[in-house]
Write a structure and sequence with these properties.
There is one protein chain. The protein has 438 residues and is α/β, with parallel strands linked by helices. It has three domains: 250 residues, Aminopeptidase (3-Layer(aba) Sandwich), CATH 3.40.630; 94 residues, Glucose Oxidase, domain 1 (3-Layer(bba) Sandwich); 78 residues, Arc Repressor Mutant, subunit A (Orthogonal Bundle), CATH 1.10.10. Helix content is 31%, strand content 22%. The chain is built from twelve helices and 19 strands. Helix 1 crosses helix 5 and helix 7 crosses helix 9. The longest helix is centred in the last third of the chain and has 20 residues. It is elongated, with a radius of gyration of 25 Å. The chain binds zinc ion. Zinc ion binds next to loops.
């Protein structure tokens, strides 16, 4: 993969450690679509980037949706008839059905069972379950814990609150040379789950931190939002500005050891789709491309027909395709610094392509210009890398008719984008190319 100016000066080893460190810090926090867990998470991100924290009141309408009551929780447990805590929220926040209403009651085993969730096929794992839009209470536990339950009376206690409050999200904007925007979005609503949630947060946090320090053509907007309701609320509040969004990615599932997967935007042939495909094709690693489906993460909202934004989802193993997904096994062992670094590399490469995907016009289009006299041909000749460089020069000259971007030329020539970009810059320096307005 070509190292561009955007990638220079990054200590990847250190970066992997820092992303993993952030994940470890925010792993214990009990997050949900609203509440203090999201605020605490955003305050950890604020140690790295000065993001703005937005608070949207409960009851606010956003298209067909309404911001729900704010949910907070301090404690929860199930006690057996001897008064022993057999399930304790303090051991894992996944034990509580996320958004559970408060409860303090004595219940029989059969009554209790109606509110329990387990994974019989993975008897040591705790499932992650939510009940955002239907008031309910429940506990999630390992199937082994469930199997030990005897027919006795249990005390269930959930010290939660569902009150008028706010939906909280974080937004960070980096101003580039133009007001055209690249949107980067991740969800911050899952409790202790690393790959589905925290890996995206860590990657975007450090991508934003890095991009803050380099000159950029596009402006970049980073959203740290609760899934679904967060993007719906953001789109409702920012509807008049979305035409500025020229490209975008939803970031999630970026720390597992699987190959990269790109889910295309609804448009399917947007520049972001072309850029990601180009980078993955030239990465030398295995990857998978999937077409848009109206299921998944916040791309569902960004790509709803009324917006149809050029936003895809760039991840490693997709939701539901790894058994650890939405269970306690999506933990700190499941994500690895090296996978996070690999994912970061793909993201920064995509940004590099977007930043320099220019169009040029050949100033000497009638027959080939003589490259030798401009010292663009390697005089020694015969070396295979110089042959590839020459080929890049010829492709750029041939296709620079004002209709092809550098990405188009890279795709058609099957030469790496970086090579094509270098060739274009060398030709522009000799006044053989002129940048076309896009
Ligand atoms: Zn999820």
């Amino acid at each position: 993969m070509n190292i561009s100016h955007l990638k220079s000066g990054i200590d990847l080893n250190q970066l992997g450690k820092e992303m993993y460190q952030l994940i470890s810090e925010i792993y214990p926090i009990c997050r949900s679509i609203t509440g203090n867990g999201v605020r605490q998470t955003l305050s950890h991100i604020r140690k790295h980037i000065p993001l703005k924290v937005r608070e949207v009141p409960s009851g606010t309408n956003a298209f067909d949706w309404t911001v729900p009551k704010e949910w907070n929780i301090t404690d929860a447990y199930i006690k057996n008839s001897k008064g022993e805590k057999i399930i304790d929220f303090n051991n894992s926040n996944l034990h509580v059905l996320n958004y559970s209403i408060p409860i303090k009651e004595k219940v029989s085993l059969s009554e209790l069972k109606e509110h329990l969730f387990t994974l019989p096929e993975h008897p040591t794992w705790i499932p992650y379950r939510t009940s955002y839009y239907k008031e309910d209470w429940g506990f999630c536990l390992s199937h082994n814990q469930f199997s030990k339950l005897r027919d006795e009376e249990y005390e269930v206690f959930i010290d939660s609150s569902l009150e008028e409050g706010y939906l909280t999200y974080g937004e960070y904007y980096i101003e580039g040379k133009t007001s055209n925007e690249v949107l980067m979005s991740c969800h911050v609503c899952h409790p202790s789950l690393c790959n589905d949630n925290l890996s995206g947060i860590a990657l975007l946090c450090f991508l934003a931190k890095h991009l803050s320090n380099v000159p950029l053509k596009y402006s970049y907007r980073f959203l740290f939002i609760p899934g679904t309701i967060g993007s719906i609320v953001w789109l409702a509040l920012n509807e008049s500005n979305v035409t500025k969004i020229k490209h975008g990615l939803v970031a999630t599932n970026l720390g597992d050891s699987g190959r990269c997967t790109y889910k295309k935007s609804r448009q399917g042939n947007a520049e972001i789709d072309q850029a990601v495909l180009n980078i993955l094709k030239n990465s030398g690693s295995d990857y998978e491309i999937i077409d848009f489906v109206p299921y998944g993460y916040d791309e569902r909202q960004y790509c709803s027909p009324g917006f149809n934004l050029p936003i895809g989802c760039l991840m490693r193993t997709p939701y539901g395709r790894y058994p650890e997904y939405h269970t306690s096994a999506d933990n700190l062992d499941f994500v690895q610094p090296q996978s996070l670094v690999d994912s970061f590399n793909v993201y920064i490469s995509v940004v590099s392509v977007l930043e320099s995907n220019n169009k040029y016009v050949n100033q000497n289009p009638k027959c080939e210009p003589q490259l030798g006299k401009r010292e663009l041909y390697d005089k020694t000749g015969g070396r295979s890398d110089s042959k590839t460089k020459q080929l890049a020069l010829l492709w750029v000259l041939n296709l620079s008719d004002g209709n092809h971007t550098l990405l188009d030329i890279s795709d058609r020539s099957d030469l790496e984008f970086g090579l094509i970009k270098d060739a274009a810059e060398a030709l522009a320096k000799c006044n053989l190319l002129k940048e076309a307005m896009r």
